[in-house]
Amino acid sequence: MIDFSDFYQIIAKNRLKHWLYTLPAQLGDWQKEHAHGDFPRWQRVLNKFPQQTTAHIELKDKVSIGKAEEMPEGERKKIESLLRHLHPWRKGPFDVYGINIDTEWRSDWKWERIRNHISPLKHRYVLDVGCGSGYHMWRMLGDDAEFVVGIDPSTLFLMQFEAIRNFANNDQRVHLLPLGIQELPKLRAFDTVFSMGVLYHRRSPMDHLIQLKEQLHKGGELVLETLVVDGDENQVLVPAGRYGKMPNVWFLPSTAALKLWLEKVGFVDVRIVDIDVTSTKEQRSTSWMTHESLEDYLDPNDNSKTVEGLPAPKRAVLIAINPD
User: Where in the sequence is the signal peptide annotated (predicted)?
Assistant: First the structure.
């Protein structure tokens, strides 16, 4: 079982202590519901990792933990084999004692596109919604965030995060909880909330934006990244079937429409800071993620379209302030 007691003890002493009224019961239910399937196998993998500590942790410009020479070659090979049992690795890359976890996404590229547009994270409490295995959470720490909480309902992502944290000296400034945003109370406690790659998976995008707003205190900043299409403020694509082979894509607005949505639910100072067409160099299959990837989702004769004939993935980043 995953032990969340350290997290409870930490938030009991900080601005998130009111979360303790609901969180332990929620996570207790999660423990019961996930005590089957692949969970025991992944738990056995976690239990086999050595309790290694290192003074060599780099989070500012990459996520690099330990050096190869700190560990015998045989031990490194064993750890790499265990890490590969947590396949597929989608968000990264990570370097763990010289083991390069070459993930499907070059998530570092996205971070570099947004980091100069957001408010400095120093001393901030940060929530990362749909955080995946937690790559960006480590980069947030690298940019001096005080406390980082990630939420993602995927059990595998939780296991991958715990594997990385095990080697990062069990850092208690960063935690991942297996929850969705709809399960959070109105905490109104975070300085910065990130929602990256989530909005298009939500059946009700406006509700998602409201839920994000409810996690921010007055003056807090939202960093929103999602798939978009070209067009004016009335342009929204609703795929009739799949989008890029994904069945759970509901709404792809234009950037102008997305800005309007944010303003409509009460955000102010809304800025469009980046628009980028996703490339097959940024998202691709690797030995750490051997399933299909972006190349397989695009029309082989016209990479400006998906296999369904819809506009190829284009992502925008918007930043907005909660005035309430």
Answer: none
How many structural domains is the chain composed of? Answer: 1
152 is in an annotated binding site: yes
What Cα–Cα distance (Å) separates residue 226 from each residue in 97, 180, 199, 306? Answer: 33, 17, 6, 17
- DSSP labels for 9-60? HHHTTSTTGGGGGTHHHHHHHHHHHTSSTTHHHHHHHHHHS-----S-EE-S
Q: What is the pLDDT of residues 193-216, one digit of tens each?
A: 999 999 999 999 999 999 999 999
Establish whether 110 is an annotated binding residue. yes
β-pair type (64-65, 57-58): antiparallel
Question: 88 preceded by cis ω (within 30°)?
Answer: yes
Whole-number Å distance between alpha carbons of 95 and 67? 9
Task: Tell me: is residue 130 an annotated ligand-binding position.
Answer: yes
Quick one: tokens of 313?
């993935």
Instruction: Report pLDDT digits (tens) over 228-265.
Output: 999 999 999 999 999 999 999 999 999 999 999 999 99
> Among all chains, which residue has been given the structure tokens 């003890």?
9
CB atoms inside a 10 Å sphere around CB 53: 12
Which domain covers residue 318, as residue numbers?
Answer: 4-322
Q: Is 304 annotated as a binding residue?
A: no
Q: Is the bond leading into 40 cis (omega within 30 degrees of zero)?
A: no
Q: Is 91 annotated as a binding residue?
A: yes
Domain of residue 236, CATH code: 3.40.50.150
154 known ligand binder: yes
Give the orientation angle of helix 39-48 with respect to helix 155-167, to 10 degrees.
Answer: 0
Q: Which of 184, 134, 201 is nearest to 161 (CA)?
A: 134
Residues 6 or more apart whose CB falls under 8 angstroms from that of 119 comprise 191, 192, 221
Beta bridge partners of 243: 246
153 marked ligand binding residue: yes
Pairing of strands 64-65, 174-177: unpaired
